[in-house]
Amino acid sequence: MTVLTALEKQVIQAIQGDMPVTARPYEEIARGLGVSESTLLAVLKGLCERGVIRRFGATIRHQLSGFRANAMVAWKVDEDRVDEVGESLSRFQEVTHCYRRTPTATWPYNLYTMVHARDEAACRATAANMAASVGLASYILLFSRRELKKTSMEYFPSDLDD
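^ that's the sequence the OP posted. Answer follows.
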């Protein structure tokens, strides 16, 4: 079990929401915490090195950015190729997420990529290009029809008292 310091918890709390849109967002966050930017960056580096933070990512409202279609592409990949194929597919510019999941007797897909595009035809074309690039034929596109929730996980609420 990882034990976090009070400063580490404050840093996680500060970065779990929207990042400031400035030339020096970490400097602004550090100022809000009452520490230097170098201290903040050192804490973040330590959290990453310990595996507490795996990655930083932006959550973009893709519909407002001109991407009107998105699809979860479920891939059936031989288990001995999952890592290789996942690495290859994750490099496509249109892919924002790539996951390996355990297949079931009734759902044989074990690799998933989220693809964003201007329209459904472009999503289909991207999936076909991806499939050709790794030699896969078994996949299915699951198009999003309506966004029901889009929020980031909050690990330390703002009313944290320890």
